[in-house]
């Protein structure tokens, strides 16, 4: 008998099975890498938003000497709006004595989902500061910021203390 050359059906099926396993594994690795990359980008974005909010808040609180709560604090002494007051010293022309005067007064508030400084929104879309609050502790202002990414359902919390 003459021997026939070619590929048998069994050999063809074995190659297809091995190729399928390799392709499925490669696709699985690719999709996992894409998912991890997306999560990493979302994490970096919310951290960058937090840094930006904190930087703007730091600049505003740089020379603040005292605060005056606007409205009422809740049962845990947390509040959502206050006046940041910068005081200065000026000589009284009549008495010749130095007196403390109010130089500037800036309104800061958490209005539902936004952090407002002088009515200007600090957080950007799609980020929210809902649930954030302020409190007075140990002669300073404790800021509890909860930044939420509303599109990706991610939260990042930071506490900052400003000595007054």
From TrEMBL:
Pfam families: N_methyl (PF07963)
Domain of life: Bacteria
Annotated compartments: Cell surface
Keywords: Competence, Membrane, Transmembrane, Transmembrane helix
Signal peptide interval: none
Transmembrane intervals: 12-30
UniProt protein name: Prepilin-type N-terminal cleavage/methylation domain-containing protein
Organism: Neobacillus paridis
